[in-house]
UniProtKB/TrEMBL annotation:
Top-rank taxon, per record: Eukaryota
Record keywords: Membrane, Transmembrane, Transmembrane helix, Transport
GO CC field: brush border; plasma membrane
The keyword Transport belongs to this UniProt entry's keyword annotation: yes
Cellular location(s): Membrane
PROSITE patterns per record: MFS, SUGAR_TRANSPORT_1, SUGAR_TRANSPORT_2
Subcellular location, principal: membrane
Species annotation: Mola mola
Protein family (similarity comment): Belongs to the major facilitator superfamily. Sugar transporter (TC 2.A.1.1) family.
Domain Major facilitator superfamily (MFS) profile residue range list: 14-472
Protein name according to UniProt: Major facilitator superfamily (MFS) profile domain-containing protein
Bilayer-spanning residue ranges: 78-101, 113-133, 139-160, 172-196, 288-311, 323-344, 351-373, 379-397, 418-441, 447-466
Protein topology in the membrane: Multi-pass membrane protein
Species lineage: Eukaryota, Metazoa, Chordata, Craniata, Vertebrata
Alphabetized Pfam families for the sequence: Sugar_tr
Length: 509
């Protein structure tokens, strides 16, 4: 059976359906930013601080009135707006620990179907926010949507990683990130005030966050369940065989089933490990360290500083229409994620991460130099602009898409759900930290803010070079062997034998 024939229509449908959740994730990330001023105005009116302050402003002078038209000036509005943005990450942090439980409860496909109720409910809360108090409705909807996205950001890479043929696992896994950046770009475009980001249509703009879940709910029943879940978790060999044939076409599934059989035997000896047990275990410490560092490097690279505050950054470097330049960043984001999809199974995961992190480090230095000297040399603004676009490009080549699916490659079936839950929580927590602190860091460091990220990126590059193995084209068993190489004698020692016995008796997280 040729590898190329494993890319079937059923596999394409399953991957497309799964990444609709990723599209929704990306849309939810970007949708809140474009209509900020419009939403703040409605918050002010609902809270009763808009009309009174505005009328008071008229009695003073028109300049102050213009300043007050920026609704975020009122402390109460600032508080509710900040909560509207931050609650999304908080919801994701909380739900990321439930990924393994949901995935194993009824399976990957039914798990994604179940959680769509959350997405639809969140969309309705935001779409109908004018029915009651907009600030309460939007915050509630964003919290529920964040909870949903925390689950889908784990379930989607897990499902795709388990159904993808070995030769295409990287490319198909990178589609999760591609769908996220497409979702961000869509939200940026339709969030323009001439489309939906205006005084009349902004509730619909936010409510559309739940639209992909509706389509996904119709398509998920047509998707085969993960063969690895059916065989290794459920012990249903024949159903796993049928699922493999549905996904890959008519072929001899015996080698794949044999690989799953060996993994199942290992999983039976080491049952599904809880989050707490995984954190305390030395057996999986190396894999867990790599997995968590991949997600930390993704968020602490400074990319979200660009995404969250790009309009402000572009204004600072002298761009007259920063909102359209921000959309330009979204386009570049999407194009280079496509490049990553094409390269990841050829160049390899480790190579692309190294190139991406190293390139971002150089771009961070270039942005710092450009911002520092643009007052003295006007052409330096072009250096800053180029640095921003290249920064995003290098991110999407490797550090953006790869951490999402490499966790599923690093762990066998037993610890995989717990590892994905921990990595997801680490990602969401880092995202929240950067989103909340970047404005203060920018205030303290001013034009040197990206020097901090350059230092971090250099550290992440060194770590990747020495500690991250290449997983391209390797089976899950072969990847695990890379980490356990040189530990064969240790694995037979009484201490490790005792630890494995303890892991067997651990409860699910």
């Amino acid at each position: 059976m040729e590898q190329g024939k494993q890319l079937t229509c059923t596999l394409a449908l399953a991957v497309f359906t799964a990444v609709l959740g990723s599209l929704q994730f990306g849309y939810s990330i970007g949708v809140i930013n474009a209509p900020q001023k419009v939403i703040e105005k409605h918050y002010s009116r609902s809270l009763g601080v808009w009309a009174g302050r505005a009328s008071a402003a008229v009695s003073v002078n028109s300049t102050y009135e213009e300043e007050l038209s920026n609704e975020g000036r009122h402390p109460t509005v600032v508080m509710y707006w900040s909560l509207s943005v931050a609650i999304f990450s908080i919801g994701g942090m909380l739900s990321s620990f439930l990924v393994g439980f949901i995935a194993d409860l009824r399976g990957r496909v039914k798990g994604m179907l179940m959680i769509n109720v959350l997405a639809v409910a969140a969309g309705l809360l935001m779409a109908l926010c004018r029915v009651w108090k907009p600030h309460i409705m939007v915050i509630s909807g964003r919290a529920v949507m964040g909870f949903y996205c925390g689950l889908t950001s784990g379930l989607v890479p897990m499902y795709i990683g388990e159904i993808a043929p070995k030769a295409y696992r990287g490319a198909l896994g990178a589609l999760h990130q591609l769908a996220i950046v497409i979702g961000i770009l869509i939200s940026q475009i339709i969030g323009l005030d001439i489309i939906l980001g205006n005084d009349d249509m902004w509730p619909l703009l936010l409510g559309l966050s739940g639209a992909p879940a509706v389509l996904q709910s119709f398509l998920l029943p047509l998707c085969p369940e993960s063969p690895r879940y059916l065989y290794i978790v459920q012990g249903k060999e024949q159903e796993a065989r049928k699922s493999l044939i549905h996904l890959k076409g008519a072929y001899d599934a015996t080698p794949d089933l044999e690989e799953m059989r060996r993994e199942k035997e290992k999983a039976d000896r080491e049952p599904r490990i809880s989050v707490l047990s995984l954190m305390c275990s030395s057996v999986y410490r190396q894999q867990l360290l790599v997995a968590l560092m991949m997600h930390i490097s993704q968020q602490f690279s400074g990319i979200n500083a660009i995404f969250y505050y790009s309009t402000n950054i572009f204004t600072r470097v002298g761009v007259n229409q920063p909102v359209y330049t921000t959309i330009g960043v979204g386009v570049v984001n999407t194009i280079f994620t496509l490049v990553s999809v094409g390269l990841v199974d050829k160049a390899g995961r480790r190579t692309l991460i190294l190139v991406g992190l190293g390139g971002m480090c150089c771009c961070a230095v270039a942005m710092t130099v450009g911002i520092k000297f643009q007052g003295d040399y006007p052409w330096m603004s072009y250096v800053s602009m180029s640095g921003i676009f290249l920064f995003v490009s290098f991110f999407e080549i490797g550090p953006g898409p790869i951490p999402w699916f490499i966790v599923a490659e690093l762990f066998s079936q037993g610890p995989r759900p717990a590892a994905i839950a921990l990595a997801g929580c680490c990602n969401w927590t880092s995202n929240f930290f950067i989103g909340m602190t970047f404005q203060y860091i920018q205030y303290w460091l001013d034009c040197y803010v990206f020097v901090l990220f350059a230092v971090l990126l250099l550290g992440f590059t060194v770590f990747t070079y020495f500690r991250v193995p290449e997983t391209k084209g390797k089976s899950f068993e072969e990847i695990a062997a890379v980490f356990h190489k040189g530990r064969k004698r240790l694995a037979q020692s009484p201490d490790v034998t005792t630890e494995l016995e303890q892991l067997k008796n651990s409860t699910d997280a």
